[in-house]
Protein backbone atom coordinates (compact mmCIF):
# COMPACT_ATOMS: atom_id res chain seq x y z
CA UNK A 1 0.00 0.00 0.00
CA UNK A 2 1.25 3.46 -0.85
CA UNK A 3 2.41 5.38 2.25
CA UNK A 4 0.68 8.49 0.94
CA UNK A 5 -2.65 6.65 1.16
CA UNK A 6 -2.28 5.71 4.83
CA UNK A 7 -0.89 9.09 5.93
CA UNK A 8 -4.34 10.70 6.55
CA UNK A 9 -5.38 7.69 8.65
CA UNK A 10 -2.16 7.92 10.64
CA UNK A 11 -2.77 11.61 11.36
CA UNK A 12 -6.32 10.83 12.47
CA UNK A 13 -5.04 8.08 14.75
CA UNK A 14 -2.47 10.39 16.33
CA UNK A 15 -5.12 13.08 16.81
CA UNK A 16 -7.30 10.80 18.96
CA UNK A 17 -4.51 9.00 20.82
CA UNK A 18 -2.22 11.93 21.68
CA UNK A 19 -2.94 13.66 24.97
CA UNK A 20 -4.20 17.23 24.83
CA UNK A 21 -1.58 19.59 26.27
CA UNK A 22 -2.47 22.32 28.72
CA UNK A 23 -1.49 25.02 26.23
CA UNK A 24 -3.64 23.45 23.50
CA UNK A 25 -6.59 23.11 25.86
CA UNK A 26 -6.22 26.79 26.84
CA UNK A 27 -6.15 27.79 23.18
CA UNK A 28 -9.39 25.91 22.48
CA UNK A 29 -11.05 27.25 25.65
CA UNK A 30 -10.05 30.83 24.79
CA UNK A 31 -12.49 30.74 21.87
CA UNK A 32 -15.41 29.78 24.14
CA UNK A 33 -15.11 32.14 27.14
CA UNK A 34 -12.71 29.86 28.99
CA UNK A 35 -14.72 26.65 28.56
CA UNK A 36 -13.86 23.40 26.86
CA UNK A 37 -17.14 22.20 25.32
CA UNK A 38 -17.26 18.41 25.24
CA UNK A 39 -19.70 16.62 22.93
CA UNK A 40 -20.27 13.08 21.78
CA UNK A 41 -17.78 13.35 18.92
CA UNK A 42 -14.96 15.27 20.59
CA UNK A 43 -14.86 13.84 24.10
CA UNK A 44 -12.22 11.18 23.36
CA UNK A 45 -9.75 13.89 22.37
CA UNK A 46 -10.73 16.73 24.69
CA UNK A 47 -10.72 14.85 27.99
CA UNK A 48 -7.14 13.61 27.73
CA UNK A 49 -5.74 15.79 30.51
CA UNK A 50 -2.17 14.55 30.72
CA UNK A 51 -0.64 17.55 32.53
CA UNK A 52 -3.55 19.50 34.00
CA UNK A 53 -6.58 19.09 36.26
CA UNK A 54 -9.94 18.86 34.55
CA UNK A 55 -13.26 20.07 35.97
CA UNK A 56 -16.41 19.40 33.99
CA UNK A 57 -20.03 20.41 34.48
CA UNK A 58 -22.47 17.82 33.13
CA UNK A 59 -25.95 19.16 32.46
CA UNK A 60 -29.16 18.79 30.48
CA UNK A 61 -30.58 22.19 29.59
CA UNK A 62 -33.29 20.99 27.23
CA UNK A 63 -36.74 21.99 28.54
CA UNK A 64 -38.03 18.46 28.01
CA UNK A 65 -35.65 17.16 30.68
CA UNK A 66 -36.94 19.64 33.28
CA UNK A 67 -33.71 19.94 35.26
CA UNK A 68 -34.12 22.88 37.65
CA UNK A 69 -30.59 22.76 39.10
CA UNK A 70 -29.12 22.61 35.60
CA UNK A 71 -30.71 25.95 34.77
CA UNK A 72 -29.79 27.38 38.18
CA UNK A 73 -26.11 26.49 38.20
CA UNK A 74 -25.18 26.22 34.51
CA UNK A 75 -24.95 29.99 33.86
CA UNK A 76 -23.11 30.54 37.15
CA UNK A 77 -20.57 27.84 36.32
CA UNK A 78 -19.96 29.44 32.92
CA UNK A 79 -19.48 32.83 34.56
CA UNK A 80 -16.95 31.37 37.02
CA UNK A 81 -14.98 29.68 34.23
CA UNK A 82 -14.93 32.92 32.24
CA UNK A 83 -13.78 34.91 35.27
CA UNK A 84 -10.98 32.42 35.98
CA UNK A 85 -9.80 32.57 32.38
CA UNK A 86 -9.83 36.39 32.42
CA UNK A 87 -7.81 36.46 35.65
CA UNK A 88 -5.41 33.92 34.17
CA UNK A 89 -4.69 36.23 31.23
CA UNK A 90 -4.60 39.45 33.25
CA UNK A 91 -1.19 40.16 34.85
CA UNK A 92 -2.85 42.79 37.05
CA UNK A 93 -5.28 40.31 38.64
CA UNK A 94 -2.64 38.98 41.04
CA UNK A 95 -3.62 35.37 40.38
CA UNK A 96 -0.85 32.81 40.27
CA UNK A 97 -0.33 31.66 36.68
CA UNK A 98 0.40 27.91 36.80
CA UNK A 99 1.50 27.48 33.19
CA UNK A 100 5.14 26.94 34.17
CA UNK A 101 4.41 25.17 37.45
CA UNK A 102 5.94 21.77 38.24
CA UNK A 103 2.69 20.77 39.91
CA UNK A 104 0.31 19.56 37.19
CA UNK A 105 -2.66 19.73 39.61
CA UNK A 106 -2.37 23.53 39.83
CA UNK A 107 -3.23 23.83 36.14
CA UNK A 108 -6.95 23.53 35.51
CA UNK A 109 -9.27 23.51 32.51
CA UNK A 110 -13.01 23.99 32.89
CA UNK A 111 -15.20 21.75 30.75
CA UNK A 112 -18.90 21.82 29.93
CA UNK A 113 -21.07 19.11 28.42
CA UNK A 114 -24.79 18.96 27.66
CA UNK A 115 -26.62 15.66 27.38
CA UNK A 116 -28.36 16.52 24.10
CA UNK A 117 -25.02 16.97 22.30
CA UNK A 118 -23.00 14.36 24.20
CA UNK A 119 -25.21 11.33 24.76
CA UNK A 120 -22.37 8.91 23.94
CA UNK A 121 -20.12 10.60 26.49
CA UNK A 122 -22.84 10.48 29.17
CA UNK A 123 -23.42 6.78 28.46
CA UNK A 124 -19.71 6.06 28.82
CA UNK A 125 -19.72 7.93 32.13
CA UNK A 126 -22.75 5.98 33.31
CA UNK A 127 -24.64 9.17 34.17
CA UNK A 128 -28.17 8.62 35.48
CA UNK A 129 -28.82 12.12 36.84
CA UNK A 130 -27.75 15.72 36.29
CA UNK A 131 -26.26 18.13 37.07
CA UNK A 132 -22.85 16.75 37.95
CA UNK A 133 -19.65 18.62 38.70
CA UNK A 134 -16.64 16.31 38.47
CA UNK A 135 -12.97 16.85 39.21
CA UNK A 136 -10.23 14.77 37.59
CA UNK A 137 -6.58 14.80 38.58
CA UNK A 138 -4.08 15.01 35.71
CA UNK A 139 -4.35 11.92 33.50
CA UNK A 140 -7.57 10.66 35.13
CA UNK A 141 -10.27 12.11 32.81
CA UNK A 142 -9.88 9.39 30.10
CA UNK A 143 -10.92 6.87 32.78
CA UNK A 144 -14.36 8.50 32.63
CA UNK A 145 -16.29 7.19 35.66
CA UNK A 146 -13.13 7.02 37.78
CA UNK A 147 -13.21 10.70 38.76
CA UNK A 148 -11.19 12.04 41.69
CA UNK A 149 -13.97 14.01 43.37
CA UNK A 150 -17.61 14.97 42.85
CA UNK A 151 -19.46 18.01 44.10
CA UNK A 152 -22.82 17.48 45.82
CA UNK A 153 -25.64 19.79 44.71
CA UNK A 154 -28.02 18.47 47.37
CA UNK A 155 -27.12 20.93 50.12
CA UNK A 156 -25.99 23.99 48.13
CA UNK A 157 -27.98 27.20 47.81
CA UNK A 158 -25.48 29.39 45.94
CA UNK A 159 -22.19 29.32 44.07
CA UNK A 160 -20.00 30.05 47.12
CA UNK A 161 -19.90 26.38 48.11
CA UNK A 162 -18.59 25.06 44.84
CA UNK A 163 -16.06 27.85 44.35
CA UNK A 164 -14.61 26.74 47.70
CA UNK A 165 -14.82 23.12 46.52
CA UNK A 166 -12.86 23.98 43.37
CA UNK A 167 -10.21 25.82 45.38
CA UNK A 168 -9.82 22.85 47.73
CA UNK A 169 -9.10 20.51 44.81
CA UNK A 170 -6.77 22.80 42.87
CA UNK A 171 -3.48 23.74 44.63
CA UNK A 172 -2.62 27.44 44.67
CA UNK A 173 -6.10 28.61 43.63
CA UNK A 174 -7.71 31.24 45.84
CA UNK A 175 -11.57 31.28 45.76
CA UNK A 176 -11.52 35.04 45.26
CA UNK A 177 -10.24 34.53 41.72
CA UNK A 178 -13.40 32.60 40.91
CA UNK A 179 -15.69 35.41 42.06
CA UNK A 180 -17.44 37.01 39.13
CA UNK A 181 -16.49 40.66 38.86
CA UNK A 182 -19.30 42.86 37.55
CA UNK A 183 -17.86 46.09 36.09
CA UNK A 184 -19.37 49.31 37.36
CA UNK A 185 -21.27 51.21 34.69
CA UNK A 186 -20.22 54.87 34.76
CA UNK A 187 -23.47 56.01 33.18
CA UNK A 188 -25.50 54.17 35.85
CA UNK A 189 -23.23 55.61 38.56
CA UNK A 190 -23.71 59.19 37.32
CA UNK A 191 -27.46 58.63 36.96
CA UNK A 192 -27.68 57.31 40.53
CA UNK A 193 -25.78 60.33 41.86
CA UNK A 194 -28.06 62.72 39.96
CA UNK A 195 -31.19 60.97 41.23
CA UNK A 196 -29.81 61.04 44.78
CA UNK A 197 -29.11 64.77 44.66
CA UNK A 198 -32.55 65.51 43.17
CA UNK A 199 -34.25 63.36 45.82
CA UNK A 200 -32.45 65.17 48.64
CA UNK A 201 -33.45 68.53 47.17
CA UNK A 202 -37.13 67.49 46.97
CA UNK A 203 -37.06 66.10 50.50
CA UNK A 204 -35.64 69.38 51.80
CA UNK A 205 -38.17 71.50 49.89
CA UNK A 206 -41.24 69.51 51.00
CA UNK A 207 -39.91 68.48 54.40
CA UNK A 208 -42.92 69.85 56.31
CA UNK A 209 -45.48 67.89 54.26
CA UNK A 210 -43.36 64.76 54.33
CA UNK A 211 -43.00 65.00 58.10
CA UNK A 212 -46.81 65.12 58.49
CA UNK A 213 -47.28 62.07 56.25
CA UNK A 214 -44.60 60.08 58.10
CA UNK A 215 -46.43 60.67 61.37
CA UNK A 216 -49.63 59.05 60.07
CA UNK A 217 -50.37 55.68 61.68
CA UNK A 218 -52.05 54.33 58.55
CA UNK A 219 -48.93 54.96 56.47
CA UNK A 220 -46.86 52.77 58.76
CA UNK A 221 -49.52 50.06 58.79
CA UNK A 222 -49.52 49.88 54.98
CA UNK A 223 -45.74 50.05 54.88
CA UNK A 224 -45.43 47.19 57.39
CA UNK A 225 -47.91 45.02 55.46
CA UNK A 226 -46.01 45.69 52.24
CA UNK A 227 -42.73 44.58 53.82
CA UNK A 228 -44.34 41.42 55.20
CA UNK A 229 -45.74 40.53 51.76
CA UNK A 230 -42.35 41.22 50.18
CA UNK A 231 -40.52 38.94 52.62
CA UNK A 232 -42.93 36.00 52.61
CA UNK A 233 -43.67 35.92 48.86
CA UNK A 234 -40.23 34.69 47.84
CA UNK A 235 -38.52 37.76 46.35
CA UNK A 236 -35.32 37.15 48.33
CA UNK A 237 -35.32 33.49 47.25
CA UNK A 238 -35.53 34.56 43.59
CA UNK A 239 -32.76 37.09 44.07
CA UNK A 240 -30.41 34.62 45.76
CA UNK A 241 -31.11 31.75 43.36
CA UNK A 242 -31.49 33.96 40.28
CA UNK A 243 -34.61 31.96 39.41
CA UNK A 244 -36.07 32.05 35.92
CA UNK A 245 -39.48 33.63 35.39
CA UNK A 246 -41.19 30.46 34.14
CA UNK A 247 -40.44 27.23 32.30
CA UNK A 248 -41.95 24.96 29.66
CA UNK A 249 -42.94 21.39 30.41
CA UNK A 250 -42.40 18.36 28.16
CA UNK A 251 -45.49 19.24 26.12
CA UNK A 252 -44.29 22.83 25.60
CA UNK A 253 -46.81 24.41 27.97
CA UNK A 254 -45.66 27.35 30.10
CA UNK A 255 -45.33 26.42 33.79
CA UNK A 256 -45.54 29.19 36.38
CA UNK A 257 -45.39 27.05 39.55
CA UNK A 258 -42.40 24.80 40.25
CA UNK A 259 -43.07 21.41 41.80
CA UNK A 260 -41.85 21.03 45.38
CA UNK A 261 -41.13 23.59 48.07
CA UNK A 262 -37.40 23.96 47.37
CA UNK A 263 -37.88 25.86 44.09
CA UNK A 264 -39.91 28.88 43.03
CA UNK A 265 -40.17 30.69 39.68
CA UNK A 266 -40.31 34.47 39.37
CA UNK A 267 -43.88 34.38 38.01
CA UNK A 268 -44.94 32.30 41.00
CA UNK A 269 -43.57 34.95 43.35
CA UNK A 270 -45.50 37.68 41.53
CA UNK A 271 -48.75 35.69 41.59
CA UNK A 272 -48.39 34.91 45.30
CA UNK A 273 -47.65 38.58 45.98
CA UNK A 274 -50.91 39.59 44.29
CA UNK A 275 -52.82 36.97 46.27
CA UNK A 276 -51.35 38.15 49.57
CA UNK A 277 -52.00 41.79 48.64
CA UNK A 278 -55.69 41.10 47.96
CA UNK A 279 -56.05 39.16 51.22
CA UNK A 280 -54.26 41.90 53.16
CA UNK A 281 -56.41 44.58 51.54
CA UNK A 282 -59.59 42.69 52.48
CA UNK A 283 -58.44 42.24 56.06
CA UNK A 284 -57.44 45.90 56.28
CA UNK A 285 -60.90 46.89 55.00
CA UNK A 286 -62.66 44.73 57.57
CA UNK A 287 -60.65 46.19 60.42
CA UNK A 288 -60.13 49.83 59.45
CA UNK A 289 -62.66 50.93 56.83
CA UNK A 290 -65.95 49.03 57.12
CA UNK A 291 -66.48 49.70 60.85
CA UNK A 292 -66.60 53.42 60.03
CA UNK A 293 -69.54 53.06 57.64
CA UNK A 294 -72.69 54.68 59.04
CA UNK A 295 -75.45 52.74 57.26
CA UNK A 296 -75.84 49.25 58.68
CA UNK A 297 -77.16 47.84 55.41
CA UNK A 298 -74.17 49.16 53.47
CA UNK A 299 -71.85 47.85 56.15
CA UNK A 300 -73.44 44.37 55.99
CA UNK A 301 -73.32 44.12 52.19
CA UNK A 302 -69.73 45.39 52.08
CA UNK A 303 -68.64 42.96 54.82
CA UNK A 304 -70.23 39.97 53.08
CA UNK A 305 -68.68 41.00 49.75
CA UNK A 306 -65.21 41.36 51.24
CA UNK A 307 -65.50 38.02 53.05
CA UNK A 308 -66.63 36.31 49.83
CA UNK A 309 -63.62 37.76 47.97
CA UNK A 310 -61.34 36.49 50.74
CA UNK A 311 -62.90 33.04 50.49
CA UNK A 312 -62.34 32.88 46.72
CA UNK A 313 -58.78 34.14 46.86
CA UNK A 314 -57.85 31.93 49.80
CA UNK A 315 -59.35 28.92 48.02
CA UNK A 316 -57.01 29.62 45.12
CA UNK A 317 -54.07 29.94 47.53
CA UNK A 318 -54.85 26.52 49.02
CA UNK A 319 -54.84 25.00 45.52
CA UNK A 320 -51.40 26.50 44.93
CA UNK A 321 -50.20 24.24 47.74
CA UNK A 322 -51.60 21.29 45.76
CA UNK A 323 -49.67 22.43 42.70
CA UNK A 324 -46.51 22.50 44.80
CA UNK A 325 -47.23 19.18 46.53
CA UNK A 326 -49.96 16.71 45.53
CA UNK A 327 -49.98 15.27 49.07
CA UNK A 328 -51.42 18.47 50.57
CA UNK A 329 -54.75 17.21 52.03
CA UNK A 330 -57.05 20.27 52.17
CA UNK A 331 -59.43 22.03 49.77
CA UNK A 332 -61.80 24.96 50.23
CA UNK A 333 -63.73 25.31 46.99
CA UNK A 334 -64.00 22.64 44.30
CA UNK A 335 -64.09 25.28 41.55
CA UNK A 336 -60.34 25.69 42.03
CA UNK A 337 -59.64 22.02 42.63
CA UNK A 338 -56.61 20.93 40.59
CA UNK A 339 -56.78 17.72 38.62
TrEMBL record:
For this record, an example GO cellular component is: oligosaccharyltransferase complex
Question: Per the UniProt record, which residue ranges are transmembrane?
Answer: 189-206, 218-237, 271-290, 297-317
Q: Where in the cell is it found?
A: Endoplasmic reticulum membrane
User: Does the keyword Signal belong to this entry?
Assistant: yes
GO BP terms, alphabetized: protein N-linked glycosylation via asparagine
Q: Which family does it belong to?
A: Belongs to the OST3/OST6 family.
Q: Which InterPro entries match?
A: OligosaccharylTrfase_OST3/OST6, Thioredoxin-like_sf
**Keywords on this record?**
Endoplasmic reticulum, Membrane, Signal, Transmembrane, Transmembrane helix
What range does the record give for the signal peptide?
1-19
Source organism's superkingdom? Eukaryota
Functionally, this protein is described as follows: Subunit of the oligosaccharyl transferase (OST) complex that catalyzes the initial transfer of a defined glycan (Glc(3)Man(9)GlcNAc(2) in eukaryotes) from the lipid carrier dolichol-pyrophosphate to an asparagine residue within an Asn-X-Ser/Thr consensus motif in nascent polypeptide chains, the first step in protein N-glycosylation. N-glycosylation occurs cotranslationally and the complex associates with the Sec61 complex at the channel-forming translocon complex that mediates protein translocation across the endoplasmic reticulum (ER). All subunits are required for a maximal enzyme activity.
Please give, as recorded in its UniProt entry, the membrane topology of this protein: Multi-pass membrane protein
The protein's name:
Dolichyl-diphosphooligosaccharide--protein glycosyltransferase subunit 3
Amino acid sequence: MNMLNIWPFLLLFLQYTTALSYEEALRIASKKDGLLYVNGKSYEKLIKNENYSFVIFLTAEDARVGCTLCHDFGPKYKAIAKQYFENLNDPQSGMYNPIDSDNDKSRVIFGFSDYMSAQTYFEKLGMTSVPKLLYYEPGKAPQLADFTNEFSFLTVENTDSYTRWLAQNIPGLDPKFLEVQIPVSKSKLYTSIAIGIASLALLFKFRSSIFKVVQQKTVWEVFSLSLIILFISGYMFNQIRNSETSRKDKEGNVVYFAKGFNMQFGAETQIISIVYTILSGCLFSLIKILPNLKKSTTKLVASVTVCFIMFIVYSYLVEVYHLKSSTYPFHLWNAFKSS
